[in-house]
Amino acid sequence: MHVEFTLDSLNKNKIIFNLFYTLGLLLFIEIVLRICFPLPEFSNFNRINYQILDRKDDNSGYLRNIEMIWKSSLDTNYEFVHELNKYGYRDELDWEKKKKKGKKRILFVGDSFVEGMMSTADRTIPKGFEKAAQEEGVEIEAFNCGMMGIGLNEYIKFIQDAVPIFKPDELIMVLYSNDAPFQREFNPQIPLKPSKRSIWKLRFLEILTHIKKEDPIPFVFAPEKRPFYKSVPDPGNPWTENTLSLQKEVSPKIAEAMKKGDFNYFRTNWILEEEKFLKSEVRVKSKLEYLKKIIINRVQNLRFFTYQVEVKLVIFTTSLNARLVCKNALTISTLLGPNTKNMQELFQKTAKHWE
Hints:
The chain has helices at residues 2-36, 112-115, 125-135, 152-166, 203-212, 239-246, 252-260, 270-278, 285-301, 322-327, 344-351; strands at residues 67-70, 80-83, 104-110, 140-146, 170-176, 225-227, 310-316, 330-332. By secondary structure, the chain is of the alpha/beta class. The strands form two sheets. A five-stranded mixed β-sheet has the order 4-3-5-7-8, sandwiched between helices.
């Protein structure tokens, strides 16, 4: 009896040990997978909803924790690396719904000027603004929501989706002088219904789901590198199928750079388009009124919006140089309501970071 009791106890202890060992191993694997394969808090909010950079089909293309390489060989030999966060934006912050205690949250919305084309990550406008605010004793977290090559229509769509998710204290929309005349019809769209990822779902199952949907899963320790501009014969490069017609429009040197993806191939004869739009009547009032309406409605109608979002419109009017652009920034308050305030002074201080 004594021997049998001892054997039963040993077997029971062995079972308990194996059980805890298995659970511990599974927990370790889950932690490793979450570290190696980070996924955003909201699964369906991503840059490609507003700007398609490299989307092969309807099932893939989410930009998450990758490095985008931007070249403009006719301007500079330097390659600019944009490290994109979980939502596909050039920001070291992994945006979260929960705000950091004691920090004001500001969303910077705009095109390449906000994203910071041809500048390092620490010299973008949101970063410069953040540094200038710190010098004034104001702690902020500035979201870099810049997306190169888009315009007012996309800004509105992004704001309509992003404001309810991230609940900014202030929102600064940055327009360059070519944004206002470049008019396209705007059709209001149904706001995104954010899908929040369950923290309890095993990352292994998440990965299997993404593989099944052909949705890329980035590996944090070896981020994928992609060029903004593809080289021939990639179908994304217009020179792949239109060489004969395009080569008549540019010099051989520019043509070669465009074929290699070393120069913006979408700018072929763009000066003619710019001329046409700059001569056209500027009509943005209805769009800005719609922007004001959707934000005010959200503040009033959604219970979790318990604050008044400040919306600032900053128009960049003069120079391609970020320093001069900041020095010439203006704030338009008449269309967006009385809650806006003049940002000129702080933008002038921001400009010092480029001097």
